[in-house]
Design brief:
Blueprint lengths: L1 H9 L4 H7 L2 E7 L8 E7 L15 E4 L3 E5 L4 E4 L3 E4 L3 E6 L11 E7 L3 E8 L9 E4 L7 E4 L4
Antiparallel strand pairs: 1-2, 1-10, 2-7, 3-6, 4-5, 4-8, 8-9, 10-11
Amino acid sequence: MTVIHKILVLGVITPKLLQVLSSLLINEVLPNPEGEKEEWAELYCSSTTSNSSSISNISSICTIFGQIKLVDASGNSVSLPSPFRLSARQRRVVTLRSRDGFLNNAGDTLTLLSSSHGAKDTVRGPASSTHPDKANRRIADGGGEWGWAEPTK
């Protein structure tokens, strides 16, 4: 963590740091839960290194300093704690709360935004009204192909 913090304070963006910043992804979304369940999104650190104690290997964690939030196309948003950290291949579920529902079941866009790095990941989901209680998720964690499946949460 110290290495990343020093790099950001100095304002130097190295290729290794860019890899860390781009490895936090939206991995799964439950846009149309049934009953009293809530909508949620799963964030995933796609970094492939698992040795998070190595100072020389900062790509073993995903760390974002500054404000980070999930925002849908209607402007609904949920803020995440700062700094936001996940170890390599770790997941974190974020509940999407809004008075009228967060995601639009006719299809919606969910964006992961960082105040210091702009849009990090965007998911354009198809209509979920025909897929109640199903998750729209990456077929392989961190992969590019999406599909409907049973939620992992």
